[in-house]
């Protein structure tokens, strides 16, 4: 791979679709593709403004991402008032802790009305701009993206506290909502497949700092069958499945492997043991290993940041591949610009 020196750092060309596929499939590609590395978190653009533009330009995206327009929550995300997850007037509703959001379904007696008003995946305009993404992909791996799969979507609908009770008090109601979520998401997969995408990326923050947010037994009863169905559907369309899940997912990794997950992100530092995770699950799943944005990227020196990226490569990479690199989450405001540059330089180093 030809490297081009620009100023003080070394560049490489973006990897091709075939090279990225080989890394994901662990078929012997020695390079490490990078995805979600220029993930500007809340406040970072306000802090640095145009200083981020060179970072956008200097480091190629190995995976070409398209984010469709998701439905709104309490209000629509477009001009259609029905394109939202909620179905009530929430102007005076109580808000809960996750994002200071309202509980969209406050009463199980309203389930039928909630399902009847669920937004349509055929909403006009939600794939606007995809043609430009495809045109500019230039032979790269193309991935369709959205946030919130099942657990995250349910806590958005019911509120986190309610959901914790629902796991024991109303599993049947949760399953009804999961079926509606899958119906919507599978229609999005259909469109991504029609457009020639190679993978699907979504999120489901299943873990807290020391374990999963639900018992493995609850995960297996409620979520695992839907994970299997959805990932199987993605595979049937010739695409791979990427999952972002913060926190400690160690107790659920075997279940995610059973469901057929292809790529797991981020193996959060401080929550999951990188060495143990690589030892136990490496070779059976590919890791989109995420740089720690909570402490290392904020507090370390540039050289310490570089060493952390090198350490991630040593732990997760193999002769067959099986590693992609990313930020673990959005880069926090207050992160030194030189640390961001150091992380990107080392991620893209050959």
User: Which descriptor suits the 3D outline?
Assistant: globular
Query: Taking strands numbered 1, 2, ... along the chain, how are they ordered across the largest sheet?
Result: 3-4-5-8-9-10-11
End-to-end Cα distance: 8 Å
Considering DSSP H and I runs of 4 or more, what fraction of the residues is helical?
Answer: 40-55%
- The helix tally amounts to 14
Rg on CA atoms, Å: 20 Å
Number of strands: 11
User: How would a textbook summarize the main sheet?
Assistant: 7 strands, parallel
Fraction in beta strands: 5-15%
Element order: H for helix, E for strand? EEHHHEHHEHHHEEEHEHEHEHHEH
Question: Roughly what is the average pLDDT, rounded to an integer?
Answer: 95
Regions with pLDDT < 50 over 5+ consecutive residues? 1-8
SS-based class: alpha/beta
Give me a quick take on this structure.
With 350 residues, the protein is of the alpha/beta class.
What does this structure look like?
- By secondary structure, the protein is α/β, with parallel strands linked by helices.
- It has 14 helices and eleven strands.
- A seven-stranded parallel sheet has the order 3-4-5-8-9-10-11. It has a two-stranded antiparallel ribbon with strand order 1-2. Strands 6-7 form a two-stranded antiparallel ribbon.
- A hairpin with a 2-residue loop joins strand 6 and strand 7.
- Helix 13 packs parallel to helix 14.
- It is globular.
- The N terminus is likely disordered.
């Amino acid at each position: 791979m030809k490297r081009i020196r620009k100023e003080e750092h070394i560049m490489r060309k973006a990897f091709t679709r075939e090279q990225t596929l080989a890394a994901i499939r662990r078929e012997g590609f020695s390079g490490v593709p990078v995805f979600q590395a220029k993930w500007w978190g809340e406040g970072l653009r306000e802090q640095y403004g145009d200083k981020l533009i060179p970072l956008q330009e200097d480091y190629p995206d190995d995976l070409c991402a398209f984010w469709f327009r998701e439905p709104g929550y309490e209000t629509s995300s477009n001009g259609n008032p029905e394109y939202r997850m909620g179905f009530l007037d929430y102007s005076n509703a109580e808000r809960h802790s996750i994002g200071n959001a309202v509980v969209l379904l406050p009463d199980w007696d309203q389930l039928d009305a909630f399902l009847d008003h669920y937004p349509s995946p055929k909403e006009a305009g939600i794939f606007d701009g995809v043609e430009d993404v495809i045109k500019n992909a230039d032979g790269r791996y193309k991935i369709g993206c959205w946030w919130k799969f099942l657990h995250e979507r349910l806590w958005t609908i019911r509120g986190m506290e309610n959901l914790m009770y629902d796991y024991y008090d109303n599993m049947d109601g949760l399953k009804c909502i999961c079926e509606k979520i899958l119906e919507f998401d599978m229609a999005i997969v259909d469109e991504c497949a029609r457009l020639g995408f190679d993978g699907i990326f979504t999120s489901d923050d299943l873990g807290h700092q020391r374990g999963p947010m639900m018992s493995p037994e609850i995960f297996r009863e409620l979520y695992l069958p839907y994970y299997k169905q959805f990932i199987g559907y993605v595979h049937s369309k010739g695409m791979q499945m990427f999952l972002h899940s913060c926190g400690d997912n160690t107790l659920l990794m075997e279940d995610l492997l059973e469901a057929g997950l292809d790529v797991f992100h981020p193996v959060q530092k401080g929550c999951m043991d990188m060495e143990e995770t690589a030892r136990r699950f490496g070779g059976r799943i590919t890791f989109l290993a995420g740089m720690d944005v909570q402490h290392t990227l904020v507090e370390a020196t540039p050289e310490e940041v570089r060493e952390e990226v090198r350490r991630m490569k040593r732990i997760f990479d193999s002769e067959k591949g099986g590693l992609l690199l990313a930020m673990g989450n959005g880069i926090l405001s207050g992160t030194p610009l030189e640390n961001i540059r150091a992380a990107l330089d080392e991620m893209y180093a050959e």
